[in-house]
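Objective 1b. Sequence-to-structure analysis of HAD-IA family hydrolase.
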Amino acid sequence: MTVKGALFDFSGTLFRVESTESWLRTVLERSGTVVPDEEAARYARELEEAGALPGGAAPLAVPPPLEELWRVRDRGAALHRAAYTGLAREVPLPAPELYDALYDRHMEPAAWRPYPDAREVLGELRRRGVRVAVVSNIGWDLRPVFRAHGLDPLVDAYVLSYEHGVQKPDPRLFGAACDALGLDPADTVMVGDDRRADGGAAALGCRVHLVDHLPVDRRPNALRAVLGLLPDGATAS
């Protein structure tokens, strides 16, 4: 296999969202909502258990009324917002406007940090002539996150589920990414953190490389393994 293109997942692969407590405390402070520290910590713990932070922990259990919405949440912007604010509303917060404010906060570039080796790996792939696409199950435009962190010039295409109305592991989303790069799937590798969702690329003939979804400070160099898929000094041209 000659790797000419690399498809990267977003959350948990190239970037990691802030902690649930940071997410909540930022919104509480902005809204002027004052709660005791122990109460804020309890809210954060309950929101995490509910899976209310997109890109954070998965729900311990999805409430039955939200099950169908949760299953298709990444197919549209309105579905995504409804699913995650619905989970957040399982936690009684001091003011009703906090639920939408929390959702809005998670879309801000400041809520995300790139993994330490993301810039190095994307830059080296570009130097070697390997084309890069970001393929994400998401309900909002993540391009501003890449621009704010200086990684946008290293990405050739963005293929986002809500813009296509289809979500991973559906092979059509990976096919759209390969088409955007002008490459045969057999010449690409999909790099992600979810065996089921990102593993769907294998149905097209893409190679799949998985990394662990860990906090940024606990995963300093997992992406560098992608460079090992290319011969030393090789280019994809």
